[in-house]
Amino acid sequence: GAGVSQTPSNKVTEKGKYVELRCDPISGHTALYWYRQSLGQGPEFLIYFQGTGAADDSGLPNDRFFAVRPEGSVSTLKIQRTERGDSAVYLCASTPGLAGDGDTQYFGPGTRLTVL
Amino acid sequence: SQQGEEDPQALSIQEGENATMNCSYKTSINNLQWYRQNSGRGLVHLILIRSNEREKHSGRLRVTLDTSKKSSSLLITASRAADTASYFCATDGTSYGKLTFGQGTILTVHP
After folding, report:
1. Shortest CB distance from B88 goes to which of A33, A42, A58?
2. pLDDT band at A17 (very low <50, low <70, confident <90, very high)
3. DSSP state of A85
4. pLDDT category of residue B6 using cuts at 50, 70 and 90
5. Which of A46, B18, B29, B82 could form a disulfide with B93 if both were Cys (CB 3.0 to 4.6 A apart)?
């Protein structure tokens, strides 16, 4: 079956612009996670959804970052007034059950965001 | 902030040798997972070990967990050139579902 997909695979934007990154989880997966990975580092947690609601958004760096999952499936990570420091690979993952069951997180290929 | 720390940061070995990577973490955990990443893109789940388990095997992989020392190791036996990748440990303990990753070990296996 299809895995987690993310679009676009690469996004180049200018400082100050608005960007949206999309994640399509595996069909039927309940929980969805966003991570950010800077060069040479491990992924860092941003936010996770249980269904439509954001269960934990403690990793969002500031109020320029926002994510939604209106129908409990596709999620969009939105970044306003982008800064060069936002450049990173943004990873999305999903799990079949409720978060906390120790399920494997299935990761998408990521979106590489470059802010010029 | 990164909870897990992998050791070594980089490891270079010959095909057929064993590769051992270590991970340390700071807080109590529910489980610990190891992931592999090629070319800085998507992560592939390798193995999960729960806090009440001490050792787990999957094919050529062996993972140990010592909760008293807050450490884990990943052993890849009979390595292959295709094992070349970055390997990350990730813990799930501060908040259900929220994985905290280490900085990773870059493994290079020379044919």
Report:
1. A42
2. very high
3. G
4. confident
5. B29
Share of chain A above pLDDT 70, in %: 95
Place of tokens 């998507």: B42
Q: What is the DSSP string of A24-65?
A: EPPTT--EEEEEEE-TTS--EEEEEEETTEEEE-TT--STTE
What contacts B25, CB < 8 A, 6 or more positions away? B3, B4, B5, B32, B70, B71, B72, B89, B91, B93, B100, B102
What integer is the mean pLDDT of B37-65?
92
For residue B104, the distance in angstroms to the closest alpha carbon of chain A comes to 6
Q: Which residues of A touch B98 (CB under 8 A)?
A: 33, 45, 48, 56, 58-59, 99
Distance CA A16, CA A82 (A): 5
Please name which of A65, A91, A69 lies closest in space to residue A78, comparing C-alpha atoms: A65
The identity of residue B70, as a single letter, is K
- Joined tokens for residue B48: 């999960």
pLDDT range class, residue B74, cuts 50, 70, 90: very high
